[in-house]
TrEMBL record:
It comes from the Bacteria. This is Rhodanese-like domain-containing protein. Residues 46-136 form the Rhodanese domain. Signal peptide: none annotated. InterPro entries: GlpE_sulfurtransferase, Rhodanese-like_dom, Rhodanese-like_dom_sf. The lineage of its organism: Bacteria, Bacillati, Actinomycetota, Actinomycetes, Micrococcales. PROSITE patterns: RHODANESE_3 (PS50206). PANTHER family: FAD-DEPENDENT OXIDOREDUCTASE, PYRIDINE NUCLEOTIDE-DISULPHIDE OXIDOREDUCTASE.
Amino acid sequence: MTETTAPAASALFEHVATRDEAIAHFRGRLAVEVDVSDVAAALGEPGPGFVLVDTRSDESWAQGHVPGALHLPRRRIEDLAPELIPTGTPVVVYCWGPGCNGATRAALEFALLGYPVKEMIGGFEYWVREGFAFDSADGLAQLPADALTNVAPDGFGAASTPGTRGELLTGDAIASGITCAC
């Protein structure tokens, strides 16, 4: 008979949350965060039940934004949100990407105004990197999914849309995008 022993505890687990603490923490994060794949799926449904808000600058909005998003820079939320979004309407906010806390600041503004709010983690950067279409000054566009953020139908490292990896796709060449299998 083979005897097994538990591996030695890593220094990473010198301080670890209890089961209840971990459950509360991760449940709390899911209450205030949503990923781009889930937002894309919800936007594809009739009546998604929330308003998607791009909180970036005018210049960033012009470079590209999620189709159907409302442009409301963070510094203008307090003044304009009550005029543009009925109180109590669920809101999902995004900024540039994970290296920016603009969406977190915007989510706080909406929460202070009483809106149910979630932050789209990854922001516009991951929307594009996961291969979803976006609006730009040139119209609807799409880049192939980045194999480091989403596995393409042909496997890791393969382009998920027609064309050469890195080529900007427009018009009829835009694919539906792939979603996270998590």
